[in-house]
Write a structure and sequence with these properties.
Helix 7 runs parallel beside helix 9, helix 8 packs antiparallel against helix 9 and helix 10 crosses helix 15. The protein folds into two domains: 165 residues, Rossmann fold; 176 residues, Up-down Bundle (Dehydroquinate synthase-like, alpha domain), CATH 1.20.1090. The chain contains 16 helices and ten strands. The radius of gyration is 21 Å and the shape is globular. It starts with a helix and ends with a helix. The strands form three sheets. It has a six-stranded parallel β-sheet, sandwiched between helices. A two-stranded antiparallel ribbon has the order 1-10.
Length: 389
């Protein structure tokens, strides 16, 4: 029997999917760090760890002390490096690499949000470049919902203040520990806004090239859980059950896939990277600013800028949110954008570019950097979008 042309169009060529090769395990559950960290050290054959984190987590909470104690019991504690700032300035990476070598560490335990986890990836990347040997490993213990622990790219800010990145399958964390008890001291705005960042991952990945179809259905569950548990977590900040469900939703929002070639997440992420690095806007807040307007733009744009298939993937989110269709794909995508905008408001995360002192005259450059080329057909449309933020 002949295969219909419509089916061939939907599946243009055979695909295979691999998961991040270094990943040896994801442990989750309240209090699991005590058992999970020693198990991962054994699995990796690691002898001495450098903890990489930020100043606030180290100086204002007992989270780092708990991790240090676990490592000391194993005689695996090397040192704690805390000079990692927002958006991962390269100076912190250089200093972290220096301390990594000085203490003779063979593994990094990164604790915190996306900045220390990305810093750890970059440190390991540059260490391998210097030594020419194997890439050493990272164990990630996230305390936010940004999901940096599942990617093999490390974004950081160079000396010129421009966001740049290194990428290698070998620098993806070899182990991830999702212990909700360690997130209770995370500031509310950071916790909730990185939840919107996870929502950004899930929503934009529905139309991301090369994402396997079964994984997209996992994104729908992530979207549903984030819409459900972010407001509940705001109402009950100490509820560990809600926090654990959000950590798992964050995991589902991006899933550790090894792409055969580069696959950009989407316009909301691209704009967020440029705005964040240049103007000091936290990544969670950039998603609060850009995700809903970008989804609305997807609803309005005609093919090929926004295909019917893309609209269908986004529109189907309403089913998983237990909401009725508006009767059209474009209408459903518009409704999704409105729901995202309302969630941001309900979480008290609404802000503007003006609050972060982003000059209006800079917006054409931001748009150009986000799309990566001059003369992009959507440049003016994106500038108009930015002007409304």
């Amino acid at each position: 029997m002949a295969v219909p042309e419509s089916t061939r169009a939907a599946y243009p060529h055979a695909r295979t999917t691999a998961y991040n090769d270094p990943l040896k395990g994801v442990y989750y559950g309240p209090g699991c760090v005590s058992d999970a960290l020693p198990k991962l050290l054994d699995r990796l054959g690691a002898k001495k760890a450098l903890i990489v984190t930020g100043k606030s987590l180290s100086q204002k909470t007992d989270v780092i002390k708990k991790v240090e104690e676990i490592l000391r019991k194993r005689d695996a504690y090397g040192a704690t490096f805390i000079d990692i700032g927002q958006h991962t300035p390269v100076a912190g990476i250089d200093a972290g690499l220096k301390q990594f070598k000085e203490v003779g560490a063979d593994v990094i335990v990164a604790v915190g949000g996306g900045s220390p986890i990305d810093a750890a990836k970059a440190i390991l990347y540059f260490h391998q470049q210097e030594t020419g040997g194997e890439t050493l490993k990272q164990i990630a213990i996230p305390t936010t919902l940004s999901a940096a622990e599942y990617s093999n790219g490390a974004g950081y800010t160079n000396k010129e203040g421009v966001k740049t990145a290194v990428s290698s399958i070998d620098i993806a964390p070899a182990g991830v520990i999702l212990d909700a008890e360690l997130t209770v001291s995370t500031p509310e705005r950071l916790w909730l806004s990185t939840g919107i960042r996870a929502l950004d991952h899930a929503v934009e990945s529905l139309t991301r090239p090369l994402v396997p179809i079964p994984v997209k259905y996992m994104f729908y569950q992530a979207i549903a859980d984030l819409f459900t548990y972010l407001p509940l977590s705001k109402a009950e900040p100490s509820n560990i059950t809600y926090r654990q469900k959000l950590q798992i939703a964050s995991w589902m929002s991006i899933w550790p896939i090894q792409f055969p070639k580069y696959s950009a997440i989407g316009l909301s992420h691209a704009l967020g990277h440029k705005l964040g690095a240049a103007y000091g806007i936290p990544h969670g807040i950039t998603s609060c600013l850009t995700l809903a307007p970008v989804v609305a733009l997807k609803a309005a744009l005609p093919p090929p800028a926004s295909t019917d298939e893309d609209k269908e993937w986004l529109a189907n989110s309403l089913f998983y949110l237990r909401l009725e269709s508006t009767g059209s794909k474009a209408g459903d995508v518009k409704k999704l954008s409105e729901l995202i905008a309302k969630l941001v408001v309900d979480l008290d995360l609404k802000s503007t570019l003006e609050e972060y002192k982003v000059p209006k005259e800079d917006l054409p450059t931001v748009a150009e950097l986000a799309v990566g080329v001059k003369g992009h057909p959507l440049h003016d449309v994106i500038v108009k979008l930015l002007q409304q933020l």
